[in-house]
């Protein structure tokens, strides 16, 4: 393929660009970003070949990838679709899908768009956080494939195959339910844990000195930026609230077991949680 | 030093033995374990030189390290202290300290014991999980050093220096408060998160397929065994409950922000949690 535009040259867009170029999927990568510092850095790092304006980039691209926060995708996607022809394909990589596909379901160029979500990320951001083999072995979800043109769908499938991801197909609503469980709640847990420790442990140097690898791994996601996560929680509010209520009630069981000194119940709760060992490697 | 006995040849005892032997801190390592399978495996893996009974091992050892669950330490430590002379040193590596030092404060050989806690662990257990450089760069806490004989204290300090750990000194009560914040609550969070996902996500294959690195890292500790963790929560009940109550109230803030669609408040909560980035590398 000839030209790919990456709208948003951060962690995800940057990591995709690196691999797509490296594997010869695309000859040229154009970067589009309001953040001129990120854009310059992406060029310095060899993530993009050129920087152009949105309109200039769309005019010459075969594939346009939106890799920006989900609120920005929601605003920008209709405008991008306004500008594309039947020979161009548009995709995004956001962590919410139902709200977005609803927004553009009546768009005349809906078929040029493929809704998808590569399930990878880190707590870091910006082009300097981009990684060459970020996505290998992880899941990529394509939503509502029947609403996309066949050639657009094939191209996006090829993108994820090039990224060495495991493809799954799912309804956008089901996607948002599953990601609330598997991804979104982990972030809330981690943010709340960080706030708990920051509230209780007034001596910050103690946190630094004592932090074990267990604490660091549980609290890692709490470093993730609000620009990305507030819009995700907002767009997936109902599902996130549903799972958050369940999580609070699960924590209350631990609280009750301790308060009542019911250590058999505490053990049961832990034995049940241990089942995750059989599910995750 | 001549002979070190490791009571409990699992993850922690095994990892300590490997390093202490490798760095020439001790000439010979004796393993003591009720679990004969672990004992045989520890010998096969070169973690211990010989397996002996508790009494035989204590009779010939310069240093005795208890690396067993904290309830077992509480039972066994007085018996071990009964058997030692003024030329021997006893230490444990458990994650709770206040309850334990209280148990043996009147023991005639109290001074031969040094209370300490190396802040490292993984979700795995048994000698096969032992690692050569497990402790390097992590914190080791010595509690109530004034209650130990000077030579015993010096020996235990040398153990942690050999393990390449950063030494901290703390009152046993303060230790239990800090570990509740930094370590124990992370485990409860992780267990409760696993239970949440297992409750809500009935399709276990979906968890397996979709699990992102974020989810895996947040839920990793949920694989930890109840034999180790129930006694820790039990012995540190008051502190753990205190921090668990705070954690539930922090999660309620996220719930309230979402329910009221107060996204500025949601952003504030996340920005506050992001402070952890400046504290943890």
Give the biggest beta sheet of chain A: 8 strands, mixed
Oligomer category: homodimer
Could you tell me the strand content of chain A as a percent range?
5-15%
Remind me, CATH topology of the largest domain in chain A?
Rossmann fold
Structural class of chain A: alpha/beta
Beta strands of chain A, count: 8
Strand and helix map with partners:
2 copies of one chain form a homodimer.
Chain A: E1 3-7, H1 11-22, E2 28-32, H2 36-44, E3 50-51, H3 54-60, E4 63-66, H4 70-83, E5 89-92, H5 98-103, E6 113-118, E7 139-143, H6 150-162, E8 166-170, H7 172-200, H8 204-210, H9 213-219, H10 226-235, H11 237-259, H12 263-274, H13 276-279
Parallel strand pairs in A: 1-2, 1-4, 2-3, 4-5, 5-6, 7-8
Antiparallel strand pairs in A: 6-7
Helix pairs in contact in A: 7-11, 11-12
Description:
The structure is a homodimer of 281-residue chains. With 281 residues, chain A is α/β, with parallel strands linked by helices. Chain A folds into two domains: 3-170, NAD(P)-binding Rossmann-like Domain (Rossmann fold, 3-Layer(aba) Sandwich), CATH 3.40.50.720; 175-279, 6-phosphogluconate dehydrogenase C-terminal like domain (6-phosphogluconate dehydrogenase C-terminal fold). Helix content of chain A is 54%, strand content 13%. The first copy, chain A, has 13 helices and eight strands. In chain A, α7 packs across α11 and α11 runs antiparallel to α12. The model of chain A has no long low-confidence stretch (mean pLDDT 94). The interface between A and B is large, with 91 and 91 residues.
């Amino acid at each position: 393929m000839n030209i790919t535009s990456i709208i948003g040259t951060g962690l995800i867009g940057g990591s995709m660009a690196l691999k797509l170029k490296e594997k010869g999927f695309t000859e040229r990568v154009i970067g589009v970003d309001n953040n001129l510092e990120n854009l310059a850095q992406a060029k310095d790092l060899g993530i993009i070949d050129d920087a152009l304006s949105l309109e200039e980039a769309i005019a010459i691209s075969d594939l346009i990838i939106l890799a920006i926060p989900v609120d920005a995708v929601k605003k920008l996607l209709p405008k991008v679709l306004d500008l594309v022809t039947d020979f161009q394909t548009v995709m995004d990589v956001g962590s919410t899908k139902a709200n977005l596909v609803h927004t553009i379901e009546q768009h005349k160029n809906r078929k040029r768009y493929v809704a998808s979500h590569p399930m990878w990320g880190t707590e870091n951001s910006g082009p300097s956080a981009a990684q060459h083999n970020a996505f290998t072995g992880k899941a990529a979800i394509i939503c509502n494939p029947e609403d996309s043109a066949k050639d657009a769908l094939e191209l996006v499938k090829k993108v994820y195959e090039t990224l060495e991801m495991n493809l799954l197909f799912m309804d956008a609503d089901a996607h948002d339910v599953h990601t609330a469980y598997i991804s979104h709640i982990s972030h809330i847990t981690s943010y709340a844990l960080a706030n708990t420790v920051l509230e209780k442990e007034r001596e910050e140097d103690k946190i630094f000195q004592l932090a074990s690898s267990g604490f660091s791994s549980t609290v890692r996601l709490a470093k993730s930026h609000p620009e990305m996560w507030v819009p995700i929680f907002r767009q997936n509010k109902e599902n996130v609230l549903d799972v958050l209520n369940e999580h609070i009630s699960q924590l209350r069981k631990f609280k009750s077991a301790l308060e009542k000194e019911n250590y058999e119940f505490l053990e049961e709760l832990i034995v049940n949680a241990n089942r995750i060992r059989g599910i995750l490697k």
